[in-house]
Design brief:
With about 190 residues, this protein is an all-alpha fold. Helices cover about 75% and strands about 0% of the residues. It has nine helices and no strands.
Length: about 190
């Protein structure tokens, strides 16, 4: 096999993996992780279950790929969050309910012992809280106007973002997620 053929094969494999991850996101959004099957994902992309296992040897491996892909969409260069970027992220999330529903379903399921996404979310939240504390420190210094330290306020900021997502998913007509998040930032001392 020539170098060009090998590269073309690799590119096709990467494209197929991306297609499988997108299909898995859809299936998980519809059925939850526990209700999603490899067979359903395979059928959606026109593969046999065995063909899907060639790309992702386990359901857990596919789940991790889905979660990593979802986080890539929200990545900020150098992890340098600022409140204006957080508002933009909340506004962006309001335009993609399927992705937010998938995230919320997986997060909710991951709190159970033995769930394959539990470790992912535990590590993710540790990193997210640290990133939020850094963002708050960059904006306010060692104390917010309320007197809280960035480390004390960071879990609250993350909780508001996630909690608003759940409320918005349940009742999008009544919950204006971006406006409510801007209101929260006002409580922190933002203009």
């Amino acid at each position: 096999m020539s170098y060009g053929d090998a590269m073309a094969t690799r590119t096709r494999s990467e494209e197929r993996r991306a297609e499988i991850v997108r299909a898995a996101l859809e299936v998980i959004a519809e059925r939850g992780y526990r209700g999603a099957s490899l067979a359903a994902v395979a059928e959606r992309v026109g593969l046999t279950q065995q063909g899907l296992l060639h790309h992702f040897p386990t359901k857990e491996a596919l789940l991790v790929a889905v979660l990593k892909e979802r986080d890539q969409w929200d990545a900020v260069p150098d992890g340098a969050w600022r409140s204006d970027l957080l508002v933009s992220l909340v506004e962006y999330n309001a335009m993609r309910p399927g992705i937010i529903q998938t995230f919320a379903a997986l997060l909710g399921e991951s709190v159970t012992e033995g769930h394959p996404a539990r470790e992912f979310f535990t590590r993710r939240y540790t990193a997210v809280r640290a990133g939020m504390a850094s963002a708050l420190r960059a904006e306010y210094g060692e104390r917010l106007p309320s007197g809280l330290t960035p480390e004390r306020a960071a879990p609250l900021l993350v909780a508001v973002m996630d909690g608003l997502q759940y409320q918005w998913l349940l009742d999008p007509e009544s919950v204006d997620m971006p406006a409510a998040f801007r209101d929260f930032l006002t409580l922190l001392g933002e203009d």
